[in-house]
Every structure is written in C-alpha cells, then in structure tokens.
Amino acid sequence: MSAVSRVFGGCRTLMAKAATNAAAAASGGAGKEGKGILKTVPVSQTLASFAGESELSRATAVKKVWEHIKGNNLQNPENRKQIICDAKLKTIFGDKDTVGFTEIAKLLSPHFPKSV
C-alpha cells in the first residue's frame, strides 16, 4: 500500500466517522442544549436590548455584533482591525469610542452570567 492510498483511505474513514457523528447528533441531539460558547443563556438587559433577544449564546452575540458592524460600516478603513463604536455599540462596550476586533469577546463577557 502506498503512502498516498493510506492517507486517502484514512480520510475516508474519518469522513465516515464524522458523518455518523453528525447523523447521531441530528437525530438524538435535537433537544439537547449547546455547550460552551454555543450554550444559550440569559444575558444582561443591555445586551438583550442590543440583540433583540433575552437569551443568547456567546457565539450568537458575537455574530450579532459583527452583523451590526458590517451593516453600519463601522470598521476603520485605515485599520480594519479597529471598530469605530456608534451609540448602540457604546452601550455594550462601556462607552468606548473604538475597540479592537480582538477585544469584542472580552467586552461582551460581563453581559453573560457567571456559571455556578
């Protein structure tokens, strides 16, 4: 058996296992709650007002922030890593005028309850 066939043979095996896991999750996991950043939890009133939902996952919250940033063209054209906050973003980012895109998750963190 050549090295190429071993790689592709292993890839098929991995893909089959992934398909099996996806099918199992779709059938049996439909009622299960997400885990980690995909877990839907109640959020602060400020973030709920921004997103229009009282319960969000962290991933969904970041997605909604990015939709707002892209929809309102709030990225600094000279430095695309910098976000220029409008009044709506300032409410969830603590009145900051600008934030780096790597800060977004950290600034959203206080809006999620601490798990006990």
Automatic annotation (TrEMBL):
SUPFAM superfamilies in alphabetical order: SWIB/MDM2 domain
Domain DM2: 36-114
A matching Pfam family: SWIB
Superkingdom field: Eukaryota
SMART domains the UniProt entry points to: SWIB
CDD domains given in the database record: SWIB-MDM2_like
Name of the protein in its database record: DM2 domain-containing protein
